[in-house]
Amino acid sequence: MTRTNFKMEDEYIKMVRGDTLAFGIEILIDENDEAVPFADELDSIYFTCKQNYTDQINAFQKSLDNGITKIDDGQYVVRVAPSDTKSMEAGKYFYDLQISVNGDVFTVLKGILELEHDVTITEGDSGSMQSKTVTPTTSIQIVIADDGYDGLSQVTVNAIPSDYIIPSGSKNITTNGTHDVKNYENAVVNVEGGVTPTGTKSLTITRNATTVTDVYNYAEVSVTTNVPNSYTSLDEGKVVSSGALVSQTSQTVTENDTYDTTLIDELTVNVPTGGGGVDTLAARCNGTLTTYSSDAITTVANYAFTGSGIQSLELPNCTEIGSNGLRGLTALTDLKIHNVTKLSTDALNGSSALTVLAIPKCTSMTTRSLNSNTNLHTLETGVLHSVIASAPIATLILRKSSVVELTATTYLKSDIWGSSGTGGTLYVPSDLVSSYQSATNWSTILGYANNKIKSIESTHTDQTAPIDLTLYYADGTLIPTT
């Protein structure tokens, strides 16, 4: 390695601030026990200087064609210009020289660079300086000169408005009306009897306009701000958003939910409380309501009927029972939900008075959906799940036009359907009786002497049958198989 114009003690470099530092390096490789210049092109070469090892910003950095020049195979000259160090404080800095070739990285030189005070200052030494103006925000800002400038001559920080607002905290809103949310980061709207919202509605707010849109039935509102990062006297009373000052606006919401009110100073809540929604119905299910029927409800929401004293419930168009939707209905003895396709977690858990359940179109059961149903002895379903083993089901009706899979014999309660159980009865379409008798796991269950298999068609007309299938259909007809 060759070097000029500076003192070097091992890896310790001393130079005068604002002077030129230039040195050459030669990269050699061992070839037949002889050191020869490395002829290949380097991927990169950097000479980097920092005040501290961990700094994210370099004091300066030179790279190929930007202070580092290749003069021959394996030979490079590194030049630090006067402008690179003239604005730096005198003192000690860390440096290294790093090369990259064929994907490998090598640090070939590192140590301390000490800048000594310069005495002579010539005209033009101040370099090309830049003036900048910044707007205060709640985050740390690092202000540096743009490319092409040697440094900053002045940084102007705009004043913070006298009514500068940083919204924080949460406000709970339980009534319809207009509410002051100017100083809150979010508002939790939970009006009793409100409609459960779903989905996301996106809003874009600009500096010179307010976007008003219908957010009815959406679970959340996504607010996008697009404002200039500047400040004038017209910005008084605005809030900080994405590094800019933005005017707050008013907003009207019609669903229970949590809303971002960072850019809202007035929130008008108008949540519908009528119309037969599930949440409204849940509010009605108190100790005095014993019977309810509705064609309008298609989904029973989570916890909608939990713990009510209802005894008879008919929801002919309902397709899904949400988590804990009908949980703990200890007085419920009559339930007609024959179009339900899904029972969510704990859907009917603890509804212990129920003895008969017809859900022929059900294709999905989940954890504990039928737990603690201690009197449920008759079940019609379109799918079998391990959860049914928690109920004492002795009569099982499978109307589906193909064999319903029995994944394990443990899906049926062993003290009823097992080899020494009291015995259960399986009702299936007549053309599938033989298929069930030979199907996996079914053949085991139906091979036990106490268990029986019968056809639905003969049972429907047989008045002496142990069950009356008209229990499950208002008009006594068969529901089409799916």
What oligomeric assembly is this protein in? single chain
Structure annotation, total helices: 6
| CATH architecture grouping of the largest domain | Alpha-Beta Horseshoe
Please summarize the sheet with the most strands: 10 strands, mixed
Low-confidence stretches: 1-9, 273-280, 462-482
> Whole-number radius of gyration?
39 Å
User: What is the CATH topology of the largest domain?
Assistant: Leucine-rich repeat, LRR (right-handed beta-alpha superhelix)
What is the C-level CATH assignment of the largest domain?
Alpha Beta
Structural class: mainly beta
How far the N terminus sits from the C terminus, by CA atoms, comes to 84 Å
In terms of DSSP E residues, the strand content is: 35-45%
Number of domains: 3
What is the residue-mean pLDDT, rounded to a whole number? 79
Query: How helix-rich are the residues, as a percent range?
Result: under 10%
For the secondary structure, the number of strands is 36
Envelope shape:
elongated
So, the CATH homologous superfamily of the largest domain?
A: Ribonuclease Inhibitor
Strand ordering within the main sheet? 1-4-10-9-8-7-11-12-3-2
Task: Describe what you observe in this structure.
The protein is mostly beta strands. It folds into 3 domains: 2-116, Immunoglobulin-like; 170-269, no CATH class; 278-472, Alpha-Beta Horseshoe (Leucine-rich repeat, LRR (right-handed beta-alpha superhelix)). The protein has a 10-stranded mixed beta sheet. A 5-stranded parallel beta sheet has the order 31-33-34-35-36. The chain has a 4-stranded parallel beta sheet with strand order 26-28-30-32, with no helix packed on it.
